[in-house]
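Incident log, structure service

09:12 report received: a user says their structure output differs between two submissions of the same chain.
09:20 pulled the input from the user's history:
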Amino acid sequence: MQTEVIRHAKNNHKKRSFLPRILAVVIFNAAFLSLGACSNPIINGVRINEPGNSPQWYEEGGSDYSPEEWQECVAVLEQLSLMGITKPERFNSLQEAKYITEQRFYLANRTIDSAKPLTVAMYPRFDNSGAFLGKRNSLAGIITHQRQQLLYFEITGDAAFKSALRLLKDNLPAGKELVLIIAGHGNDEFLLWDNGTIDYFLDPTDYADTELTGLLHSLNISLVFFESCQAGFGGSAGQNQANRFAEHIRAGGKVIAPTIDVYKETYTFGADDRIQDIIYNKGEPGITYKADGRLAS
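09:34 re-ran on a clean worker, output below:
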């Protein structure tokens, strides 16, 4: 679903409304009308810095680069852009960004290792609250596990989501198991993905899109994690994101989502470096909902 909007100020996570659903949709859209456009555009490979902020790794002089290192940094920024990734602030260092480009290169060339665990992260392009900045997101904690293969996509809308899933379907080793992370601002019914000018939502209408659900069915998804506020609100009795998504992953898989607003996610790993579970916020009891996959094998 899409809605054209004009943005003019900052806002934070969407709070769940207890008004009737038709009003909830209006309120959700209105909340995001006030989100400011993403700042700091890249100009000739250099991101313009906001006043008062210290230089970042993707800015000349941000890490005391030698001329050769800076040229490598510019090359990585260009590679990210070619992959549709325009937010280098999602990564904490040049090394992390290089890792992301390398993993996407392996996918494009069909050289993903079938023996190593694979995690796929779908992050929204627009995020004016800073919830998905490198210092706050969960990517670094996954990258540091040496056997992990992390594929990162920046999602701008419904078409971009399907394009990423299609790339996985066409290029992964046959039957390759994966963990899927879906991030964005939202609630139990909506998750916001957009490109800064048009709102796109992962919403109930998307689950009626046979192209989208067919792509989900074609992938061997063992775990899905929602990094989105209240995506599991209502638990098993709720018409929430977790339950809707569980209809489209195989039996034996799980969709895990928070029942409340969240500000931090930490993943736990097994001895084989596969992601096993997630801790939301500080791990308070009763804030995590798990839905069983319902797609017949």
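09:41 both user submissions now match this output. Likely a transient worker issue. Closing.
09:42 reviewer note: Residues 113 and 173 are 8 Å apart (CA to CA). The chain is about 25% helix and 25% strand.
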